[in-house]
Amino acid sequence: EKQHPILLDYVRQxxxxxxxRFTYGTAGFRSEGSILASTVFRAGILAAxxxxxxxxxVGLMLTASHNPISDNGVKIADxxxxxxxxxxxPFADALVNAPxxxxxxxxxxxxxxxxxxxxxxxxxxxxxxxxxxxxILLGRDTRPSGDALLEAAKQxxxxxxxxxxxDMGILTTPQLHWMVRNIxxxxxxxxxxxxxxxxxxxxxxVDLAPDNTMESKLVVDGANGVGGEKLQQLKKILSGLDIxxxxxxxxxxxxxxxxxxxxxxxKEKAIPSSFGLDDVGMKCASLDGDGDRLVYFIxxxxxxxxxxxxxxKILTLFALFIKEQLDFLCNEQGxxxxxxxxxxxxxxxxxxxxxxxxxxxLGLEVVLAPTGVKYLHKEAATFDVGIYFExxxxxxxxFSEKFLSHLQARSDELSSTASGSESHKxxxxxxxxxxxINQAVGDALSGLLLVEAVLQYKGWSIKAWNELYQDxxxxxxxxxxxxRNAVVTANAETKVVKPPGLQELIDEETAKYPCGRCFVRxxxxxxxxxxxxxxxxxxAADSLAQSAVxxxx
Length: 553
Ligand code: 16G
Ligand code: ZN
Fold this sequence. Notes:
Belongs to the phosphohexose mutase family. The protein is of the alpha/beta class. Helices cover about 40% and strands about 20% of the residues. It has four domains: about 10-170, Alpha-D-Glucose-1,6-Bisphosphate, subunit A, domain 3 (Alpha-D-Glucose-1,6-Bisphosphate, Chain A, domain 3, 3-Layer(aba) Sandwich); about 200-305, Alpha-D-Glucose-1,6-Bisphosphate, Chain A, domain 3 (3-Layer(aba) Sandwich), CATH 3.40.120; about 310-465, 3-Layer(aba) Sandwich (Alpha-D-Glucose-1,6-Bisphosphate, Chain A, domain 3), CATH 3.40.120; about 475-550, Alpha-D-phosphohexomutase, C-terminal domain (TATA-Binding Protein, 2-Layer Sandwich). The strands form five sheets. A five-stranded mixed sheet has the order 1-3-2-4-5, with helices on both faces. The protein has a five-stranded mixed sheet with strand order 7-6-8-9-10, sandwiched between helices. The chain has a four-stranded mixed sheet with strand order 12-11-13-14, with helices on both faces. Strand 13 (about 385-390) and strand 14 (about 395-400) form a beta hairpin. Helix 2 packs antiparallel against helix 3 and helix 9 (about 310-330) packs across helix 14 (about 445-460). The radius of gyration is 24 Å and the shape is globular. Mean pLDDT is about 90; it is low at about 105-110. The site of zinc ion (ZN) has 7 residues, from loops.
């Protein structure tokens, strides 16, 4: 028999750990870093197959984001820089859990790892052997387990004939997604290109803004991860911002995500480590461990608390700005297709009710999507300009190719005649925003620069921004249950459809609270059911959440 292009021998070097089951989850496979080698090896095979299938470069990122330093994870970026298509997730799950070939005698031969791959290759019609090559960009965050896992990923890739691993080193997750997207578009894609593009479009936006005086000082919590490191690099080529990065991950500054980072600040509403009394009232921001989430905060005088300026507020700031630019643009004659430019915002059920009400009052179309970037991104991509954010600070602004080429053509046309008009400037601003903000995935570094550019444009302090609306008090709790998947939701996770009767009980409870809102959903990353409640007072929100936990238990 002729040799199959999948080299069976490698598989044995990465034995499957006993008694664990991995699922691709909301954002790839994630677990304790020490037991991930076989998963990452097989994710390498998966990435190679994905690249062969699409005929394009894909990405493989090693990170566990905001999770503890001992965790790690792996996810695949598709050729457009977005998350791997969902249709491949069942195969991904089957592949990483399939028994090793050695165990052939104990289990049905049909299910072992190599056979599974061979079967899938056939089903999906993945081209082999015709000289096709596959390219996979590898990135990883600063976790100590990253080195060994990188080797496992490379071996997995190398076990597929024609597949090449290209190690891009330590990167933020959004940097890797950006690179994959750009390579496939044939545009500049190195790390320095990324840095230069961000710095340049930021500078252009500031130049296009009125001469407002600015609260230019910004203190950033880097979560002791890769984001802080990259921000310091970016800082060197940025002008007009006074950024001070703490928790950069340098020796002695603390551990990754420990008592710091965007997830900590958002969930605990507490100041991160290395921040103190000197920072009270300052404009501060926090990144997560792999640099794809961003929240702002103002340390308050009372104990360790902060005024949190979360993803919903970032979304609101961006939406205000974009809407204003579109209005300028569309008021101009010659740009009469006002109806044709669609602007939409996408949130999840976690968005604070006050933010949704505010956005709707602005006349914006608000769409709800289930938790997880892949769902929000997809919804946002249906608009000419789609803005999506999770309350936890993950989000971006997507521009349709059609709208961008329209803007470009118009700006070329106007540059000779109407330069200087507000409408012309609006077009230029929108073009620069599309260059600044990551089109592949949420990106804390580009998000931060856009926040700063918009504050500059508006002449707003962080306090003024924060006061756009006031958050309704809310509470999040977890319920540990025997089987979280017994809870099935619909309507972007706002309604329980299984077990029957639960939603009615939640509704009954919620009705007892003024401004009450409550939903429960199975976590995509932890073995728990999450509960969210909102009401007019903190006590009421706490009590509603508590009651909902009891209903779920
Ligand atoms: C993942 C998601 C994040 C989501 C979170 C919810 C991506 C890149 N990340 O971190 O967007 O908010 O999961 O976790 O999609 P949960 O399902 O445990 O509540
Ligand atoms: Zn992250």
